[in-house]
Design goal:
With 306 residues, the protein is α/β, with parallel strands linked by helices. The protein has two domains: 114 residues, ornithine cyclodeaminase, domain 1; 180 residues, Rossmann fold (3-Layer(aba) Sandwich). Helices cover 34% and strands 24% of the residues. The protein contains eleven helices and 13 strands. The longest helix is centred in the middle third of the chain and has 20 residues. The radius of gyration is 19 Å and the shape is globular. The protein starts with 5 loop residues before the first strand and ends with a helix. 43% of the residues are buried.
């Protein structure tokens, strides 16, 4: 019997490529639309989350996350888990992959796919709103596609932004979000804010915004005016509309209409910039189908490396 590989974070990280991953995500969206399902189990404050996806022609994946908040006090990670990847041909288990590896590359790769299609190719000034783990991955991802870019980072805590900037070349910290937004060409928001941080009145012609952080119905990172001034896209209609406050709230209040959301990744040909001056926004909602696409790419890279 052939051993089932377990691909650790370190093993997978050494094999990954941001441009290759986004090309793989684009290719995955040419296959039949994914079927996805989530399930949750609880014990007090602890959570077990399973996210499953099935794409005809690619296979199946179940991504399991355990969330144990009390682990922080013990000095251990509060989120753990793994991904089981199954064969499309016969349903057999093909690989087990580290949860954090898949999540890192899926999340940043999702938004990089939008930026590669919607941002101006000559964009060189990138603003990261937020300084957490996702922002670190975004820095690496955007640098792969915009090699000559300089970065500015803003965080609610200036010390966090300063610490982030000290670990990345060509990166400066700021405590003035408005000025940073006004001077950026790509803006990536990766926060868990429940109130809009970026205001539409600050936006400038030609900018592209990736909205990554908000994932609950009460979360938002930009205000109504920002959405109204931009051509608006999402990575997936099913994981954003009705689920994430960034889209759900303004739809319910009438600030935007359903027709204002132009396309998702299942219509990638519609993701393009019409002019140098227009403002574009893409909301990253994630989803198990993207975990499946990313896991399949990781396994293919692992196999290619022998």
């Amino acid at each position: 019997m052939t051993a089932i590989p377990f691909i650790s974070f370190a093993q997978g990280e050494a094999l990954m490529d941001w441009i290759g991953l986004t090309d793989a995500l684009a290719a995955g969206h040419t296959l039949p639309k994914a079927e996805i399902a989530d399930s949750f189990l609880y014990r007090g404050g602890d959570t077990l989350l399973n996210r499953a996806a099935w794409i005809d022609g690619m296979g199946m994946a179940v991504k399991t996350a355990t969330v144990f908040p009390e682990n922080v006090a013990r000095g251990t990670p509060n989120i753990n888990g793994g991904v089981n990847l199954y064969s499309d041909a016969d349903g057999t288990l093909e690989a087990m992959i580290d949860f954090h590896l898949v999540t890192k590359w899926k999340t940043a790769g999702d938004s990089l796919l939008a930026a590669r299609r919607l941002a101006r190719p000559d964009a060189r000034r990138i603003l990261l709103v937020g300084s957490g783990a996702v922002a670190h991955a975004l820095h690496s991802a955007y640098q792969a596609a915009f090699a000559d870019a300089s970065f500015t980072v803003w965080s609610r805590t200036t010390a966090s932004a300063t610490a982030f900037a000290s670990t990345h070349a060509n990166t400066t910290a700021t405590d003035d979000l408005q000025v940073a937004v006004e001077h950026a060409e790509i803006i990536a928001c990766a926060t868990i804010s429940t109130k809009p941080l970026v205001k539409g009145e600050w936006l400038q012609p030609g900018q592209h915004l990736d909205l990554i952080g908000a994932y609950r119905p009460d979360m938002r990172e930009v205000d109504d005016l920002a959405l109204q001034r931009a051509r608006l896209f999402v990575d997936n209609f099913d994981t954003t509309i009705g689920h994430i406050g960034e889209i759900k709230i303004p739809l319910e209040t009438g600030a935007i209409a359903r027709a204002d959301i132009i396309a998702d990744y299942y219509d990638l040909d519609a993701l393009y910039r019409q002019s140098e001056d227009e403002i574009t926004i893409c909301k990253n909602g994630g989803g198990a189908h993207l975990d499946l696409m990313t896991s399949r790419y990781i396994l293919e890279q692992w196999r290619d490396a022998g």
